[in-house]
Design goal:
Oligomer: single chain
Structural class: mainly beta
Radius of gyration: 12 Å
Low-confidence stretches: none
Strand order of the largest sheet: 1-2-3
Number of strands: 6
Strand content: 35-45%
Largest sheet: 3 strands, antiparallel
Helix content: under 10%
Mean pLDDT: 85
Shape: globular
Length: 71
C-alpha cells in the first residue's frame, strides 16, 4: 500500500503481473506485466515509487524493477 498514491499493489507470480488497486474505490486500475515471478511488491510513501524483484524460475538476475506513478 502507498498512502502517497492511495493505491494497493499485489503481485501474481503465476500471471507475471502486478495489479494496482485504487484504495478509495477498491477498483483495479492497472495491470502491469512484469514477466518472471512477480511475487513481492514494495512501495515508498516518500517517492510513490513501486519496487518489484525481477526473477526467473532459475534464480533470476537479482534485479529490481522500479515503477513511478504518472503525474
Amino acid at each position: 500500500y502507498s498512502s502517497k498514491n492511495h493505491q494497493y499493489y499485489t503481485g501474481s507470480a503465476s500471471l507475471g503481473a502486478i495489479f494496482v488497486i485504487d484504495a478509495r474505490t477498491n477498483k483495479l486500475i492497472q495491470k502491469i506485466s512484469v514477466g518472471g515471478h512477480a511475487h513481492s511488491v514494495a512501495a515508498s510513501d516518500v517517492t510513490g515509487k513501486v519496487f518489484v524483484p525481477e526473477g526467473t524460475g532459475e534464480g533470476g538476475c537479482g534485479c529490481v524493477a522500479v515503477f513511478a506513478p504518472s503525474m
